[in-house]
Amino acid sequence: MSLASERAKPGASSKPTLYKRIRLDIETRILTGEWPPGHRIPFEHQLMARYRCSRMTVNKALSELAQADLIERRRRAGSFVRRPQHLSAVLKIADMRAEITALGRSYGYQLIDCRRRTATAADRARLGVSMAGKVIAITCRHSADNVPFAVEDRLIDLSTVPEAATADFAREPPGSWLLHHVPWTEAEHTISAVVADDRTAKALDIAVGAPCLVIDRYTWRSARTVTAVRLHYPGETHRLVARFKGG
Amino acid sequence: MSLASERAKPGASSKPTLYKRIRLDIETRILTGEWPPGHRIPFEHQLMARYRCSRMTVNKALSELAQADLIERRRRAGSFVRRPQHLSAVLKIADMRAEITALGRSYGYQLIDCRRRTATAADRARLGVSMAGKVIAITCRHSADNVPFAVEDRLIDLSTVPEAATADFAREPPGSWLLHHVPWTEAEHTISAVVADDRTAKALDIAVGAPCLVIDRYTWRSARTVTAVRLHYPGETHRLVARFKGG
DNA sequence: TTGACTTATATGTCTAGACATATAATCGTG
DNA sequence: CACGATTATATGTCTAGACATATAAGTCAA
Question: Is the CB of B86 under 7 A from strand C?
């Protein structure tokens, strides 16, 4: 067959490398449905013969497919096409300046309020901590082409990030500052919808009762809470878009 | 140093395999911030000496880190820690039954309307196709513990998925049917917020004017449109939650 | 029939080499 | 000094082996 007769040597005539071609061949068969979920793909030794290459080369292709969750490998049993990934979506939420400039719009930032205080009970609940330490509470607004884009309410746990006490949040948005100063290990996003209350409506320059998209993001470093942030976006004009390839 | 003195043999005393340990060591240094973005990690030959293993073993660890976008590899220059992934979030949106049963609630499904027709101008715009073919338009509702969970408005392009003409959408939700019968290659999600109109409010058993989370999902197989679906969730009770590890 | 033991086998990991290739760094030259 | 050619080097890919290990499948005894 044609694939076997094309010599499988590095610089023979094929542009991509061999293991990539093997991976792509298999990927294609899976995505077109030729090999449906549950189908057992050829054993490594069969692919070795098919592509006239060593087992390591085949193994590299299959390992990457396994890492991408397209196939499942089971010892002694073989490699199997996995069930489609249940429409799992990858939604990228970049930091605000990147998000806005990526849209080709000019970024603006206004600090509305910034205060340092001993954590109240509400603060502790929001951060998920039990001890009363110092926190910074920030309210600010991000705009695109001078139109309000989102309001941000943020708490930063100073016992995790003491350096934040010296940051100038009038100049730099807290999200950007944290991104560049604090490595995070875990985060949680919650997306919901609300109608604008008085304060939010004023900040976003929309009507009270207008729909808002709300994103709550909690960030941890190791087991320590770093920050909790709530973003309100005008719901009818703002959209979160995620385009992705699936399997 | 301790890592070098522990013998680096497969079944010596270490539980995980060597390349995984190398990968984890590097990952840890990156996530703790010990190796900040831009930092050049040791060359392969240095890691070979450090872990007393062959280059392929080191290479496997580094390749996986590169595949996971934690490092960037440049020929002749070395491997570098990448900038933090700008808080990119992974939001899993499973199919409705899985989503609801994962919450430990019982899944219910009602078909509200299902009709087959030649695509109207509005249908074509929504599907992003120019030719007038046949489509199926479906309205249905998903519920959790007999409480409305989401209303779904869906268009299926019959020229891409002719088999859909024979599916029984009164019995099986169209999302599940498509997931099991049509492999997809690309999708796009858009998340926004609206206030409930009369029809949506009735279907979800909420007040007119209450906030709703809206998810629009378009799915393609290769260059062909498969389906466009719009989901309305009650915004104040429903939340999309995504927890993830970051870098 | 069932449970315990054995065996065959496919994947998992690893080695010590090899050549290919992109490119940072150096060296020459105008 | 600017720019083109050369060189050194780190990664990219590949080979032909090896042993480890989980487990499907077959075997045998209670």
Answer: no
DSSP A34: S
- What pLDDT, in 10s, does the model give residues B6-60? 333 333 334 579 999 999 899 888 866 688 888 999 999 999 999 999 999 999 9
Q: Mind listing the pLDDT tens digit for each residue in B109-152?
A: 999 999 999 999 999 988 888 777 899 999 999 998 888 989 99
Do A29 and A149 lie in a common domain? Answer: no
Residue B109 is assigned to a structural domain of this protein: yes
pLDDT of residue A80: 94
- B219 and B164 assigned to the same domain: yes
In one-letter notation, the amino acid at residue A60 is K
DSSP A174-242: HHHHHHHH---SEEEEEEEEEE--HHHHHHHT--TT-EEEEEEEEEEETTEEEEEEEEEEETTT--EEE
Residues B218 and B110 in one domain: yes
**Residues B64 and B129 reside in one and the same domain:** no
In this predicted model, what pLDDT tens digit does every residue of A77-130 receive, in sequence order? 999 998 754 333 444 555 788 777 766 678 899 999 999 999 999 999 888 887
What residues contact residue A246 under an 8 Å CB cut-off, 6+ apart? Answer: A84, A85, A87, A88, B184, B185, B186, B187
- Residues A101, A175 within the same domain: yes
Q: Side chain identity at A91, as an amino acid letter?
A: L
- State how far the alpha carbon of B217 is from the alpha carbons of A110, A199, A236, B102, B220, in Å: 34, 32, 17, 21, 10
Closest CA to the C1' of C23: that residue is B76
User: Do the chains contact at A186 and B246, CB–CB below 8 Å?
Assistant: yes
Q: List, as ranges, residues 166-205 from A with C-beta within 8 Å of B.
A: 175, 179, 182-195
Statement: the CB of A225 is under 7 Å from strand D: no
Q: Show the domain range for A108.
A: 96-234
Give the residue-averaged pLDDT of A23-50.
Answer: 88
Are B107 and B221 contained in the same domain? yes
State the pLDDT at residue A20: 93
Per-residue pLDDT averaged across A121-147, rounded? 89
Is residue A38 in a domain? yes
Q: Which of B81, B108, B125 is the last residue of a domain?
A: B81
Give chain B positions within 8 Å (CB) of A30: 183
Q: B201 in a domain, yes or no?
A: yes
pLDDT by residue (tens digit) across B86-103? 333 444 555 788 777 766
Of B50, B81, B112, which one is at a domain's C-terminal end? B81
* Structural domain total, chain B: 2
Mean local confidence (pLDDT), B193-203: 93
B107 & B213 share domain: yes
Q: Which of A175, A169, A182 is nearest to A115 (CA)?
A: A169
Provide ipTM, 2 decimals: 0.57
Chain A hits for B67, Cβ within 8 Å: 64, 67
